[in-house]
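Quick one, probably user error.
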């Protein structure tokens, strides 16, 4: 019996060894099978992807919370600083320079000396814009001998609130001009010439009117602006209240027709100046002569309303060629007209050029002022440009050829 039991144990041990050998062979074969390896890798990769997706969802929830929360760091885009420095030199072909010739140059709007402009623009609530502009220079100070005068000073502060896609409101406590109401759709001319006639359009658009509040309404092809200006008169003798209106109509073939209107009502002899953006209750009534005012005063008390009307047509011939013409007249003197017609071509990588005719007339047969302007523009990189040009001025009996060079460096 013992011998039989020993043989049985050896047989069981042999069967177990064979079973283990077969199991190991199957496991090795399955581990070396490429399909099984790919399935195992796919399961591991899927698990890792699910973990990454969960982490991404958590990050997106955090970003969404900060963007919608009040006081979020993503609410403002920071402050943009822009600077432009201009320098202009002129050669006047005259025998002697008297005050009449100096007045002729000023009426032509000829740039002289240097000027610098620094603008800080900050976005608020992602839609509104707070802007502060500092300037310094010696522009149009022809009769001044100090080339270093003109300290950096605050020239304009404005806040533009874009209420909707079609409505915006702007408030300008100081340094307001009518052109501040014009939007980017209002003019296709971004480059400037050598004089005011070829650079800014009608004179009423770029005159300084102190403080202002206005609104702009935009549709698909019409931009309309309305503003009220308040400016202190020289010598603190009163204030001038001006109402400005503008309508820009988009014509076919990249053309624009602009209508401008400015109505001015000076208030002379006010005993108290309330301050900027403060209008007395009697502005809508005709100002009458007070009995207590001295009759010997050299300044009149009566309100003399005035204003100007202007129309401007602009057209884009191609990507860089522009044509513009405008006419402006005074309400009190319909026979006095200012006008300008110009054409320019400013390609980015090539030499640009410009030609402009302008002047003013007093009646149909009396040319009060006439000027011709022609210039080239060389772009020395993306930030520096040089504009040499020739200007011929005719002002009454005065005639003056002028060679000028203007350079601009923008930052």
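Nope, works fine. Designed sequence:
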């Amino acid at each position: 019996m013992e011998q039989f039991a020993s043989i049985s144990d050896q047989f069981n041990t042999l069967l177990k060894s064979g079973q283990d050998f077969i199991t190991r062979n199957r496991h090795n074969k399955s581990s070396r099978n490429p399909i099984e390896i790919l399935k195992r890798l796919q399961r591991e990769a899927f698990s890792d992807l699910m973990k990454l997706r969960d982490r991404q969802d958590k990050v997106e929830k955090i970003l969404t919370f900060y963007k919608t929360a009040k006081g979020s760091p993503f609410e403002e885009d920071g402050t943009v600083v822009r600077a432009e420095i201009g320098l202009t030199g002129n050669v006047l072909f005259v025998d002697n320079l008297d005050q009449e010739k100096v007045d002729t140059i000023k009426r032509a709007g000829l740039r002289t000396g240097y000027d610098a402009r620094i603008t800080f623009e900050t976005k608020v609530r992602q839609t509104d814009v707070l802007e502060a502009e500092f300037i310094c220079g010696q522009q149009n100070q022809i009769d001044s001998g100090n080339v270093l005068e003109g300290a950096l000073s605050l020239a304009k502060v404005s806040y533009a609130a874009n209420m909707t896609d079609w409505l915006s409101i702007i408030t300008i406590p100081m340094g307001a001009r009518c052109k501040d109401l014009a939007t980017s759709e209002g003019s296709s001319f971004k480059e400037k010439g050598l004089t005011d006639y070829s650079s800014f359009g009608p004179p009423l658009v770029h005159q300084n009117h102190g403080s202002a509040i206005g609104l702009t309404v935009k549709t698909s092809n019409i931009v309309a602006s309305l503003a009220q200006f308040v400016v202190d008169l020289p010598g603190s003798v009163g204030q001038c209240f001006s109402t400005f209106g503008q309508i820009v109509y988009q014509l076919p073939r990249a053309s624009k027709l602009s209508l401008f209107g400015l109505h001015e009502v000076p208030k002379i002899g006010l005993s108290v100046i309330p301050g900027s953006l403060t209008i007395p209750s009697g502005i809508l009534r005709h100002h009458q002569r007070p009995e207590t005012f001295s009759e010997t005063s050299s300044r009149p008390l009566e309100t003399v309303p005035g204003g100007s009307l202007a129309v401007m047509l602009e057209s884009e011939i191609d990507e860089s060629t522009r044509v513009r013409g405008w006419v402006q007249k005074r309400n009190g003197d319909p026979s006095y007209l200012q006008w300008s017609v110009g054409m320019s071509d400013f390609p980015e990588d090539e030499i640009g050029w410009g030609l402009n005719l302008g002047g003013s007339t007093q009646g149909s047969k009396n040319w009060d002022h006439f000027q011709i302007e022609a210039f080239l523009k060389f772009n020395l990189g993306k930030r520096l440009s040089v504009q040499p040009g020739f200007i011929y001025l005719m002002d009454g009996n005065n005639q003056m050829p002028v060679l000028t060079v203007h350079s601009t460096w923008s930052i």
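Confidence is low (pLDDT under 50) at residues 71-75, 140-148, 184-189, 283-303.
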